[in-house]
Fold:
Amino acid sequence: MFNSISQLIEKAEQEQKSIADVMITQEMEVTGRSYDEVYRDMEKNLATMESAVDEGIAGVTSTTGLTGMDAVKMQKYIDSGKGLSGDLTLYAIAHAVSTNEVNAAMGKICATPTAGSAGVVPGVLFAMKRKHDVKREDMVRFLFTSGAFGFVVANNASISGAAGGCQAEIGSASAMAAAALVEMAGGTPRESGHGFAIALKNMLGLVCDPVAGLVEVPCVKRNAAGASNSLTATDMALAGIESRIPADEVLEAMYKIGLTMPSALRETGRGGLAATPTGERLKQELFGEQ
Structure:
């Protein structure tokens, strides 16, 4: 059983296993299920993510009308060949946005680690599928690796925007995706830890300020930013760049920042973008006087 990122990495190194295998083994031990049962459950999660990505790329709009069809615009932009960021990044943005637009439209998604941050992990994962030769098994294992890091986050800090701000949601998701992508790309467990730490450091202090209290604005676009951040952190880790602050200490810092963050900036819809004149106007248009 691992309870920290350092323990996870040490376990993988000592047992000469991938982080994905360490996570699968722990899940088997905790639940008493077989390898095949655990693996099949994760395959179902992958299928749910894939459906959401496809649905969003085809075009969805939320009931409120605040969000929708941006994934379609991004796909058209990619197809135009005019993109500046490179296709991998642009596909990650498109798939992250598509997933979160489906969430905003009350569609079926897989929370990774939350519904509001559900676009980051599949955004990165399905971008890799579009641009590289990634087998289905590799995609499932990617989810186990991201789940291993998410397990540590949930048990040692927070994945709740209400408790820790958006750093706990988009930040955690971005770090989870970076760690998993490092492993998918052939990096070591220790490099995965650095990818996690770099990605999370980049998002410390991110507030949760949903306009009208809905998981739409700015949440959908923040999923795009989280996916892009994952790719940056992954490349840095694979280049041999290390986080000077250990991953577990970065995670602790995120937790402490969340504790000191004003309540107005933790999913209450009372601060940040939600409190702007336009944010207030949109709230009144949707719900009337409160």
User: Anything to note?
Assistant: The domain at 5-287 is CATH 1.10.4100 (2-methylcitrate dehydratase PrpD). The first helix runs from residue 5 to 14.
